[in-house]
Amino acid sequence: MGEGTRALSAIAEESIDLMTDPIERIATAAVPTPAGHYVQGTAWRDLVFVSGQLGPRPDGTHTSGEPFETQVRQALANLLAILAEAGCGPDRVLRVTAYLVGVENWPHFNRIYAEVFGDAKPARTVVPVPALNHGYLVEIEAIAARPA
Ligand SMILES: CC(=[NH2+])C(=O)[O-]
Q1: Atom 6 (ligand 1): residue with closest C-alpha?
Q2: What angle do the packed helices 68-85 and 106-117 form, to 10 degrees?
Q3: Which of 67, 112, 114, 148 is least surrounded, with the fewest CB atoms within 10 Å of its CB?
Q4: Which CATH superfamily is domain 22-145 in?
Q5: Can you tell me whether residue 67 is helix, strand or coil?
Q6: Is ligand 1 within 6 A of the CB of residue 51?
């Protein structure tokens, strides 16, 4: 087999792997099981996708009636617990999207977020929205790369 044929064969094998590598469901008991038609997170190869996290406590009770800071801390704790289940710390997060009710909450959100993420500074987008499920003021999702 010549060099060109070997290279083509390697590309074909990699393409088949790309199509057949399984998608894993990530689930941890540290975060309530989603009530809707979705999972806490998925992983494919080294990529991890965490569903939008609201701020329910592990026992399922909601923090939505509580101060903004409580909601943000719980949503971040939920996000990090799911990432940890997938083998990722905050330093492995590539991108975060946060949905905030009330753009005036941005500075509070940013302060708490900076405390929690520390030296890790993933790409991030904050999207102001009119309302979230269960009356929450924040929902946070992330994409991460787990170590090989
Ligand atoms: C809360 C949430 N992640 C959903 O999809 O409804």
Answers
A1: 36
A2: 40
A3: 148
A4: RutC-like (3.30.1330.40)
A5: coil
A6: yes
